[in-house]
Design brief:
Blueprint lengths: L1 H28 L5 H9 L3 H10 L10 H19 L7 H21 L15 H9 L8 H17 L2 H22 L3 H25 L3 H7 L8 H10 L1 H8 L8 H6 L1 H16 L10 H25 L4 H7 L6
Helix pairs in contact: 3-15, 4-15, 5-6, 5-7, 5-8, 7-8, 8-9, 9-11, 9-14, 11-12, 14-15, 15-16
Length: 334
């Protein structure tokens, strides 16, 4: 009975913490860009005018002027807000652990080139970048977490002994996808499980199609593709060996059948399809105040918003026609 009471008390405490955090998130959602805001941005005549609009909306921070600075500031604000509300940030590891593997790539590239490469490392991560750099520079892989040691050693040796940067990246990218998938599934949170399922499947589909275009064989695909529940990896590999049309045919019998038309257009159109599918996943979470889901939904909504603004600003900067920009814009959360 004592154990049951402790569990009940713990659940009630967690519920209260999420209720408070979700209430704060609700107020922050009011500041998210709406479809009308995106339309106003589209109506701006230049990137400079669009940046001025964003600054007037509260984007950026004092001293931020360029698009990159403003967007980086917005991402930083989002993570600062989450850290204020959540004591145990490990619940967001699914969104951060990919940066650890990016930093692993960067550390190996530095070791290979024998020189420091500025601005290569991400700070929002689960493993201190300095530990990763030390592990690689000293070849002491025991400094790394268990799940990273073997892949770090293998990728390092391939890069240093063969100079094959592509194979090095393939090995690390697959390990990153597997870690993200593991983290998401272990949360037992429906939204995060949906998110990682789509993220890994998206990567696998992109890899399969690019492999056909570059003439990669089955062995390469087995080294590159990460497993997930919504795709049969062996069927995807067999399809890729027959050509792109065979991949489309296989996908037409999966939950990604609706994405085939987007894939036939371009990788960008497929990425947009996936991003819009995530927005479909997160919208119902507005009405679930007792779990992590609304916080994760807000984070994903912010990432979607920042990506949309980046696409729009890039279009304005490069004088791309408005109709072309519109084709690339994402659906908004609000």
């Amino acid at each position: 009975m004592i154990g049951l009471k402790e569990k009940t008390d713990k659940k009630e405490l967690t519920d209260k913490l999420y209720i408070y955090a979700v209430a704060r998130i609700r107020s922050k959602e009011l500041a998210l860009l709406s479809k009308a805001d995106i339309e106003q941005l589209m109506n701006c005549k230049s990137e400079k005018e669009a940046l001025r609009f964003l600054l007037d909306k509260g984007w950026g921070r004092e001293g931020t002027e360029t698009a990159d600075e403003i967007l980086a500031a917005e991402r930083k604000k989002t993570w600062e807000l989450l850290r204020e509300m959540v004591d145990d940030m490990s619940v967001f590891n699914v969104f951060l652990c990919g940066n650890d593997f990016h930093n692993l790539k960067a550390a190996i590239k530095q070791a290979y080139k024998g020189t420091e490469i500025p601005n290569m490392f991400y700070s929002d991560c689960t493993v201190d970048p300095e530990i990763i750099k030390k592990a690689i520079s000293e070849q002491d892989f025991s400094l790394l977490p268990d799940y990273m040691r073997e892949v770090a050693k293998e990728a390092y040796e391939i890069q240093l002994h063969t100079g094959d940067s592509q194979l090095c990246d393939v090995i690390i990218d697959k390990a990153a996808l597997e870690k993200i998938y593991h983290e998401g599934k272990n949360t037992k949170n429906e939204l995060l499980e949906q998110y990682v399922e789509l993220k890994v499947a998206q990567a696998d589909i992109n890899i399969a199609i690019r492999s056909v275009k570059t003439g990669k064989d089955k062995e390469f695909l087995r080294r590159a593709l990460a497993g997930c529940e919504s795709l049969d990896i062996e069927k995807l590999i067999d399809s890729a060996s027959l050509g792109i049309e065979a991949i489309y045919e296989y996908l037409s019998h999966t939950v990604y059948s609706d994405a085939v038309s987007a894939l036939k257009q371009s990788f960008q159109a497929f990425e947009r399809w996936c991003d819009n599918r995530i927005i479909e996943y997160i919208k119902p979470q507005k009405y679930n105040p007792f779990t992590l889901s609304p916080l994760a939904a807000y984070l994903l909504a912010r990432e979607n918003e920042i990506k949309t603004v980046r696409i729009l600003l890039s279009g304005k900067r490069n004088d791309i026609a408005d109709n072309v920009i519109r084709e690339r814009l994402r659906d908004m959360y609000v």
